[in-house]
Design the sequence.
């Protein structure tokens, strides 16, 4: 093994807790959090705290080692709620790196995002389980088969949307799916479906939102003559292409680029932006507040 | 003088002609152009040609040395029209580097773009004359005074728009202004005004268009939670913020950035993007076709 | 099929010729080229011409449709040499899109670049054949097997370098390989080997060259505290990491990024930069002059 | 006043303390810091904490409001040292936003960085005083004069380096200068001089370090054929162009760009990178550890 490989492999081995908080800004809040972690034997490994001065709201991310910590996962949450969160009227979530998140992937016909995700799964770049791939077309089944991943194809998705979604929701529950990635799924989910996974459905849109929402963004970008194209990954909400943005990136285009070239360059962007968003989600690097994400590692 | 200075100074000294063409794609068209240049003694220094495959339209930029060329500026245009352009049904323009373009600057209260432009004028980065600065406020007059530039302030621009514009147009004509730069002018020009300077009014908008047109783009960008902000320079057309885009650029923002930080970072973008667009315009690096620019040097 | 798919598929179907030239700057040179193309029935689709003012050397790329052209591939080259190139003392090469280039891939243990290349082959992003993958380790054989690609493993490459290379060269000749991609091969080729494929071996180096040549660039970048990391694809020459650069790209790192994070971010860069360089090579978008590349599409 | 202006102006008004720490990683360290701030009445406004896992060293930046804080500036430092720092063997510094830092600017002949800095001073982008500009040439005196800034010209700097530096150090002491900005000063300072202002002399180098250190980086970059050029701002140390990097940025160049174009594009980079580094320094956003900077706001 080369040094690079060793470094890639030895990492994140020991259990850690990650706390995400947003809260009204009150004196003593950070002290209370650090006191909680220290008093019960946790060693802080990362801490970020910032204030939204307009709303006087604070955002916090703290990570500590659970090695030698006084409580189990469940107790940690309960004790934190009782001893800290309730006093400060905080909204909080605590995650534990030992709880590997379970991700479902929804695809249609475009292979680029799914291929990129599958590559990262294969080289163990992410600590995530993928029990299920769902599609409305058979085209990408060979990719799933190659790695013995379960692939469920649904027909007539547009015509029988409610019925199809009901079966999909059953499957997701059955496989204990924590969050969903729409890897160019090309279907609009119903509000009912979306409401079951709030801030837990990640979409990739092939433009720099809020520019060019909806269909055919590369064609629109070409026609508008933009000099830079983009891709945007966001949580899905009821309003199309309007959910909290997790990650965006862009690339220059030039006078010789046709719509084909925009698509080719853009697809490379799409897969990187989607994978970067998944990374932030899995590593609990972000929280959502008033329709925006606070991403602590970017 | 250092080597860098020498290099900066010795450049573009000898007269050159720059030809910009868009035309239906017809056999022999490039040959006819290169033949014209060569036959009359011009030495080609740059040539770019590309085809829009959807419309079967070609775009061409050619630059040649006028040293030893058979014709004067005016004759060159006439002979080209007769011998080449008419045969191929071309739209063309020929510019000569010895004809220094005359630029008017419209400003309001923000100093950043004007300061950046004035710096570039002072160090002779651009071959351009600025006979006139027009403003609806007195705030930036000291900048103009410092360099003995003519500064005309117009009051009550909003209330008497037509009357004010009539006087402005007179001034522009009197000073033989070729093109106008709106360096954060903060006023909307009437269609009548715009129609007098087609593709000759350059605006800077403080967002990545078509995202966040209109007022308060930084506030909107913050509220939408974008991860990257941008600036866009475009030719002004009748429809607000919808003219042909000349240049765009972007910069990442992060979770700690407030609206203030977006403004601070964005203003640096605005001035660079505007100056880059002016550079392309002055150096005749672009043409407009169907609401888009073809920028040959990017 | 979606519109995006249709656009991706219908492209580059008809045979085209691509001419690359560098030459002393002489009057009439472009005219002679465009005349040659037009006279024999070619329709120009792209043309770029620029002058290196220091050396008074011109660089040209021209592309034309062979449909209805008077000559076969071989004749085209011969007639061009005789009628144009010799008069102007040009160095030139003519490529034809119907001649699909044959690429060998050399790998070691890192899968990221090979996986990315294999994906692009699978979706037919590139017009290229890959008859052969060569490796000094068995690790990546499963990737080759999955797509029925020939995978040749060589043992003891370091110890028996000359013998191993002799056998490799035989294999390359046998498979009519046109150019070689070192997709993180981790071995230094001998000068003898390199000299057989001048400007036809493409390497990816995991730093922004000339910064951090040689081994362990991510560790060096971390230690030096750079704020941006990069990747560089270049043609291999006798001097390590010093060949003509084809493509580079960069990404920001921040204070929380460990060497692991640099490797993770960097590997995404490496594969995109390498694939972009392969694209330019395959599409004959570049030429080499005095140790630099002139890349016409960037 | 527009909304943008109001936002720009109302900011950073109330006194804040900024604590920068690096320390061996010991349990309870963050708790001790937050406890100190809270116990004495400070309200935390920002906090960032990260661990270098290789060295087991932690880096911390904390900012709190001094309004209602129990101690004066001087006491704050003493009490923190006694109650917190000594227990944990921390290296720390505390800054107060009310102590406006005093910056000297060293220039030579290039105006671009000085002009950019002067613009930012004029619009009050930075909370900084500039009592002194030092130069080895008279060329930029008019810029200083225009804003009534003190400009000291030293002749024969190369020949009488020690004597000149002795007088410069006197002037710096006399004007109570806190830190120095070399805005393309083009002279190498002696080790003696540098040692008087450790991590307090900010230089701008016109390349992406460690690529192209020393003289003529644009010429070298052109010759090497890089596809991206950069600029680097760093603290000056005894070894040329090897001090801790504060900020870097890059821009693409293309096949038409001459050395002149690299210089033109690069100078825009240089001024932005230098100003960004000054911003980080003034706002106490960074610390230096083992030859690297930890920059908390990027």
Sequence:
């Amino acid at each position: 093994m080369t040094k690079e490989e060793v470094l890639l492999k030895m990492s994140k081995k020991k259990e850690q807790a990650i706390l995400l908080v947003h809260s009204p800004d009150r004196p003593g809040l950070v002290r209370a959090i650090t006191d909680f972690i220290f008093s019960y034997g946790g060693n802080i490994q990362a801490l970020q705290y910032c204030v939204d001065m307009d709303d006087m709201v604070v955002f916090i991310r703290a990570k500590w080692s659970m090695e030698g910590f006084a409580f189990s996962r469940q107790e940690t949450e309960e004790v934190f709620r009782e001893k800290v969160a309730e006093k400060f009227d905080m909204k909080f979530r605590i995650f534990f790196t030992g709880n590997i998140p379970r991700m479902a992937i929804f695809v249609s016909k475009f292979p680029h995002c799914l291929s990129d995700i599958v590559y990262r799964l294969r080289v163990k770049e992410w600590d995530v389980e993928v029990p299920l791939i769902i599609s409305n077309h058979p085209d990408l089944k060979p990719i799933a088969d190659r790695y013995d991943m379960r692939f469920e194809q649904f027909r007539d998705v547009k015509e029988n949307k409610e019925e199809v979604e009901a079966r999909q929701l059953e499957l997701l529950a059955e496989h204990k799916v924590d969050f969903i990635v729409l890897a160019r799924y090309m279907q609009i989910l119903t509000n009912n479906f979306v409401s079951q996974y709030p801030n837990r459905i990640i979409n990739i849109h092939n433009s720099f939102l809020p520019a060019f929402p909806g269909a055919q963004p590369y064609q629109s970008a070409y026609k508008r003559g933009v000099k830079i194209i983009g891709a945007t990954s966001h949580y899905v909400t009821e309003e199309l292409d309007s959910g909290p943005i997790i990650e965006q990136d862009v690339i220059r285009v030039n006078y010789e680029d046709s719509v084909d070239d925009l698509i080719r360059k853009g697809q490379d962007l799409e897969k990187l932006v989607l994978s970067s968003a998944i990374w932030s989600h899995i590593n609990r690097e972000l929280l959502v507040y008033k329709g925006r994400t606070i991403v602590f590692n970017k």
In short: Residues 204 and 233 of chain B are 4 Å apart (CA to CA). The mean pLDDT of chain B is 94. The radius of gyration of chain B is 21 Å.
